[in-house]
Here is the input.
Amino acid sequence: MPVTSAMAHSVQTDKCLNITTVEAKDIRWPTSLGAHGSDAMHTDPDYSCVYVTINTAEGLYGNGLTFTLGRGTDIVLLAVKSMKGLVEKRTTASIYGDFAKFWRELTSESQLRWIGPEKGVTHLAAAAIINALWDLWGKIRGLPVWRLLSEMEPEELVSTIDFRYITDAITPEEAIRILTDSKINRQARINEIIHKGYPAYTTQVGWLGYSDVQIQTLCRKYLEAGFTAFKIKVGQNLDNDIKRCKLVREEIGWNNKLMVDANQIWDVNTAIEWMKHLKDYKLLWVEEPTSPDDVLGHKKISEALREYQIGVATGEMCCNRVLFKQFMQAKALQFCQIDSARIGGVNEILSVYLMAKKFNIKVCPHAGGVGLCEMVQHLQMWDYTSVSCTMDERMIEFVDQQHEQFVNPALINAAACYEAPNSSGYSTELKQEAIVMFEYPNGSEWQRMFADGTFKKQDY
Amino acid sequence: MPVTSAMAHSVQTDKCLNITTVEAKDIRWPTSLGAHGSDAMHTDPDYSCVYVTINTAEGLYGNGLTFTLGRGTDIVLLAVKSMKGLVEKRTTASIYGDFAKFWRELTSESQLRWIGPEKGVTHLAAAAIINALWDLWGKIRGLPVWRLLSEMEPEELVSTIDFRYITDAITPEEAIRILTDSKINRQARINEIIHKGYPAYTTQVGWLGYSDVQIQTLCRKYLEAGFTAFKIKVGQNLDNDIKRCKLVREEIGWNNKLMVDANQIWDVNTAIEWMKHLKDYKLLWVEEPTSPDDVLGHKKISEALREYQIGVATGEMCCNRVLFKQFMQAKALQFCQIDSARIGGVNEILSVYLMAKKFNIKVCPHAGGVGLCEMVQHLQMWDYTSVSCTMDERMIEFVDQQHEQFVNPALINAAACYEAPNSSGYSTELKQEAIVMFEYPNGSEWQRMFADGTFKKQDY
Here is the structure.
């Protein structure tokens, strides 16, 4: 693709499409059959998603999704269905022309907001719809979303963000200034992303269900694949955690990065005490030491672990920009782990990146699951071209699962970097056979597993 | 009912019942046809609930509910259905014998927690189930829930609370100490509640949709009914708000209490500026000045309004004990407005009352809607008998709507106090005809309104 800033269009030049229908599907993979994805709080995840397709009369369509763990996917699906009337029969211009206004209509529907607001099921549903709209927008402009974002004028990009509740932390004017200042050398950074990609780290060496031998084998595999940063799960048993940290350090040495993830298992004081026992393993961060809602708790943990140079990371289950704002205002985290399928989709995530820039917090996105790698690579690449403009201690999580289900899967190059997506849109389209096989409960694989007794059909 | 502490039983003496089925219904009233309940963010509420009945083989049953605003009730209903397998086929002893453990199983189901956790749709669903279990427990012991709570031994009461994520603010030992210390004169306070009830305030004089004449008429009506505290909605137009405050003060005088409610309409700095314009109206509190998730924002507002002696109140949409904990730790609110149908039902609310006692915060519960008055009166009466042991600047919101739908409605006496409930349970049983008429979408009233075009049936 030729690299030229002439690819930046204004809203007016976009072709205006007529949205016809919003389809939503419950897709689940039986990942609980292995121990893949298991952690201290989520012991048997079936990686799943609510998959949204926004169709237009002109034939172009957008796909978006939100990630789930199996049970409950039907609940988010129903929430998507209850919102689709806000999207159907609209023109794309009426949405992208004032995307922040549309985003607020979707997330603040006067009756639905009571069962949120802006959190949990309804916000996950909004995220799936919003992500589909960005996929569609990318296709309309013929750009992958990271390029769409990187080539937008600052004013247009900022016009997509609802600043409600965050103006005490960042104003639209400040956001525009950040994006305007980063125009210097942006083209060079875009070229760098295209040629080198964006660094990844792996979580795949230390799920809680893995044996020592599995951990060693996986460390060697990912070292050979060029990875220099590794994350393991902790929190069920302190002696085991010490043993596992030691084991991984023996395999990866001391120049590579090591992080640990507690998945919210501890209370605040327990987190501090537990992590003191792991201080000798040169840990870059402890992830989700306690409740994802506890700003002040994370602040206390951050302060207590500062002397051991262990940072605090959280964000994959942070429910919205208001929580992220406070985490940053309170210096309660050092690594911000936005999740591309949570909070209210791309528009809200953009505001988090901009706040992170202002508060000088490193964004290292959560990924894995279903489609998270595919989506978040776009956002993090935009962060490099247009927001933080640095990769210093920044990297994207990578888990090698479910990618084969996507038409344009996330790809890792020989230097363990995400390759820059070059297809139009948000890399969110599932292969047709994935849907045929894994739609719940009628997909062919589920029918087979119900029949042979591998799974019992959800029944209520 | 004779007043004797011999009514306090231990778990062991409870009759053990066998839970058979958990039924859940979507019940909606067409309140949007008036302007009742309208505020700055919720312009057209149809007061609704998910109504849960827990049946036992022995015939006793418990009812519980969570309040909703119309659309979305079906989503919460589906969440209840997805959880009911955790309750059905259990004995009551297996639940009440370690209620905290059961509560955690319900709120931390390993796949469902991803779409929360402990917030939004899934937590509302958990609340409806938990509230039904307390109704059933009250019936088993033959006590209204406020008496059940007041007569429990401290250890048993504290055993119902999951302290995960709050031990940095309050420990089980501290909670037991609070409840043990309050045994002195508790019987006298129980008698006082029985004879005098608990003070109410009214929100019914100033919904945003009301005209000046309506406001004046209602002020006079509620003054005559003995009310001494009044709350009005603000936030859509500053000049109107000034006018309405003035109007209400002219009607109620300066010795009665006046509060204002912004329903989350403002950003942090706007809240401060707006409220400065209302400083002359001797306002006890401003309620929900900004996002219910913004602890640090409320702290800033509290500090800015202190010089005007305007307190900050919030809590009706506070999603769980972790947020409440931070609001208290940060001194971000002066009035804690717990909602009996939100957070994870009674068990979690008990922990909020205990933290409020420790942090010296006044609890003035949110009520109105459907069943909120009925339920929360029990909790606030227990607060008086067993926790704060004072009514100083404490009162329960009262809105005179939907009470007629209940078998044991909340009652206000001639001194504008809630009368102590004396029926066993949690006052949560709907009349059969309410269900027949208002179950959505098949109730007779909905069918009539669909047929005559008053409402369009939800269709997706």
Notes: Chain B touches chain A through 68 residues (CB under 8 Å).
